[in-house]
């Protein structure tokens, strides 16, 4: 399982074999079944996970029990409730496995240790955090300024591997649309393609 993370760290961060050993030493491998929660509201998100296999969703439950999906994570993506992780406060989110999945987890203590002792690791995480922040800002802008059709088209274009693995009602939630609106948009897209 660690081999997937090692390849990722070499490719994205240029880590050496010695640095990979340090990462491996503090990592914890975990298998999780479909529909099982990795995190529930009220828990502390005291981990960051690297997805080796499978998929996850991070979501909150709003008024009247409506789920609001904030992000997905598939292979070679990281998952955590970063707000809870950074502040130590209880999470308002859930992280659920959408498929049988495998992760490599890092505790907050070990994560901070890696950031201090491996400069290439810290540089890689800083770059990923900047890209994540940019994606988050773009999503907010899209949700407040673009039509449902544009949001859907962008999702399919940007995340084709996720699109084929995630139920449509979850995609609707992620895009801030109702199921009915997403259904209408998909029909219009299909008509345009013909």
Automatic annotation (TrEMBL):
Keywords: Kinase, Transferase. It comes from Olivibacter domesticus (Pseudosphingobacterium domesticum). Pfam families: cNMP_binding (PF00027). This is cAMP-binding domain of CRP or a regulatory subunit of cAMP-dependent protein kinases. GO terms for molecular function: kinase activity. SUPFAM superfamilies: cAMP-binding domain-like. InterPro entries: cNMP-bd_dom, cNMP-bd_dom_sf, RmlC-like_jellyroll. Residues 30-115 form the Cyclic nucleotide-binding domain. The lineage of its organism: Bacteria, Pseudomonadati, Bacteroidota, Sphingobacteriia, Sphingobacteriales.
């Amino acid at each position: 399982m660690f081999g997937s993370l090692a390849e990722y760290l070499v490719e994205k961060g240029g880590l050496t074999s010695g640095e990979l050993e340090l990462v491996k030493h503090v990592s914890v491998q975990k298998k999780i079944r479909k529909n099982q929660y990795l995190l529930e509201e009220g828990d502390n998100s005291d981990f960051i996970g690297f997805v080796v296999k499978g998929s996850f969703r991070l979501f909150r439950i709003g008024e009247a029990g409506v789920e609001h999906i904030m992000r997905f994570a598939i292979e070679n993506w990281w998952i955590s409730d970063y707000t809870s992780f950074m502040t130590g406060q209880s999470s308002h989110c859930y992280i659920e496995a959408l498929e049988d999945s495998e992760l490599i987890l890092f505790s907050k203590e070990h994560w901070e240790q890696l950031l201090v002792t491996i400069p290439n690791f810290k540089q890689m995480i800083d770059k990923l955090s900047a890209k994540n922040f940019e994606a988050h800002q773009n999503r907010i802008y899209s949700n407040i300024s673009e039509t449902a059709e544009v949001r859907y088209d962008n999702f399919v274009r940007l995340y084709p591997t996720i699109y084929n693995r995630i139920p449509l009602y979850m995609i609707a939630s992620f895009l801030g649309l109702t199921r009915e609106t997403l259904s209408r948009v998909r029909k219009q897209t299909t008509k345009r393609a013909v």
